[in-house]
Amino acid sequence: MSQLSLRPYLLREERSGDLAVFRVLLAVYGALFGVVRLDYLLGFRHQPATSFQPIGLARLWDHFPSNGIWLTLCLSLTPLALVWLWGRWPVVGLLYAGVLTLTLSFSNAFGMILHTENLLCLHVIIVAIGSQRVSRSAASTLFTPATTLYLCAWATALAYLISGTAKLRLGGFAFLSGDTLQTHIAVDNLRKILLGDSSSPLAEFALRQDALAGTAAVVVLALELAAPLALWWRRGALVWSALMWLFHLGVLALMAIAFVYPLVGMAFAPFLPLGAWVRRLSVRRRDLARS
Amino acid sequence: MGGTRRSKWVSCARLMGVPAAAGPVQRVAGVLAFIALTSAMLWPLTFAAGTDSFPLSSFPMFATARNPILEAVSVHAVLPSGERARLPPGLAAGTPEVLQARALIHRAVTTNRQTMEVLCRKALTRSQSAWKLPPIAVELRYERYDARAYYRGQREPLKEKLLHCCADQTDTCSGSNAAQPSPLSEHSPRSGGAARPAQASQGSASRGNV
């Protein structure tokens, strides 16, 4: 029976299996990210120094790193993620979290902050810190697996909650009319056209659907504000994750903006019984092999 | 009494993500981590409007009510036939991310003529080595549109202006680089989809998105 309760379902059971799967997925995502985004990251070497506006960890430096240091940072992302995936030395997780955050802070320091990598960074930091050993026993980590996944889920929920409150704080209830959303779709797509990038072929159709835009605005805001409920209600978490995933699919379809981390499901993975799914999958594979 | 206090502490810790089975170190670490994470993630809400950071953010994308008037500086390649083609972000500004390309172009255009020339030259070099039919010149063009009207069929810009031109042969761009103020404001956008509105210098609409 699924119900709302003050005991978060995320803490009700043993979650070391879920965490093990999540860490593997996170490390694999990080390793692929390092390969896919390498060219993009290396390109910042050629940007003019005058465009550098440090943010986050990059504020500790008043200039962009030298070519050698930047190359080392970018090229170490994938190897560090792979060593972390191996899982032999938890301290590598901390090193990976630091290098990833520093590299992305620098790459976001050229006048435009992309909001597609925030949760990746936060999840890596939480999992890396939580899996540090506090005694010689391998099982004795700084956070319990349930706490680590709870914190990751909380980071996801809080990010969406902050995004929802930003809409009310900055745009007010006018956001609910759908007009703001439609103008965003129009401006964003046209800007892509003007700057020679690919834009959404569905934008023109979507901009004619006024009633649909109003409904979408209400649903998006409600989903973002309801994000913390996903921590307390198991079935609600599945429904919420699926709807947020659809929202990101909508953003991709209408604005050609890919929030890859949520689109591949990683943002919502801490809510899910990953360990049980993997076990079920392996049992099914074993049964298939026998038959 | 002590038992009640302990059960309250356990319930409180559970709300912060610490299961009952956690050891004493894990319990304290879990509670501290929850408080630190929550405080850190809420911290950007105290930033001034238009300020953002990474990885902690106020996630302002799609939040502000936007003016449909869009101002952009686009980078065009001039082909030997005289035709013009928009350069994609990778060739125009050296980054495949369109929003970062926009910020870099905006920054170059609002700094000085030298930064404009550097951006233009780099775009020319990149496009000449990437395209089979190398362009003979690159132009930076200011354009202003009503984005909502654009999608209702009004495809012509409200305003268009050549800001800068660069070419291998000096006569290709002759006369087009006369000193003139950039129509864009000097404010650079700092965050996500919620770009800071910039002041337009001329025309009927006084403010627009850059």
Plain-language structure description:
The complex is a heterodimer of chains A (291) and B (210). With 291 residues, chain A is mainly alpha-helical. Chain A has 2 domains: 13-143, no CATH class; 159-284, no CATH class. In chain A, 63% of the residues lie in helices and 0% in strands. Chain A has helices spanning 16-36, 38-42, 67-86, 90-107, 118-130, 145-171, 179-194, 203-207, 210-225, 234-255, 260-263, 274-290. Chain A is globular, with a radius of gyration of 21 Å. The two termini of chain A are 34 Å apart. Chain B is an alpha+beta fold and 210 residues long. Chain B folds into 2 domains: 2-62; 69-202, no CATH class. Chain B is built from 6 helices and 6 strands, in the order ααββαααβαβββ. Chain B has helices at 2-15, 24-42, 89-93, 98-111, 113-130, 147-150, and strands at residues 69-78, 84-86, 137-146, 159-167, 198-199, 207-208. In chain B, the strands form 2 sheets. Chain B has a 4-stranded antiparallel sheet. Chain B has a two-stranded antiparallel ribbon with strand order 5-6. The longest helix of chain B is centred in the N-terminal third of the chain and has 19 residues, at 24-42. Mean pLDDT of chain B is 80; it is low at 185-208. The interface between A and B is large, with 82 and 84 residues.
Shape label of chain B: elongated
* Helical coverage of chain B, percent range: 25-40%
Q: Radius of gyration of chain B, Cα only, in angstroms?
A: 26 Å
- Based on helices, strands and strand pairing, what is the structural class of chain B? alpha+beta
Determine the mean pLDDT of chain B: 80
Largest sheet of chain A: none
Radius of gyration of chain A: 21 Å
Q: Regions of chain A with pLDDT < 50 over 5+ consecutive residues?
A: none
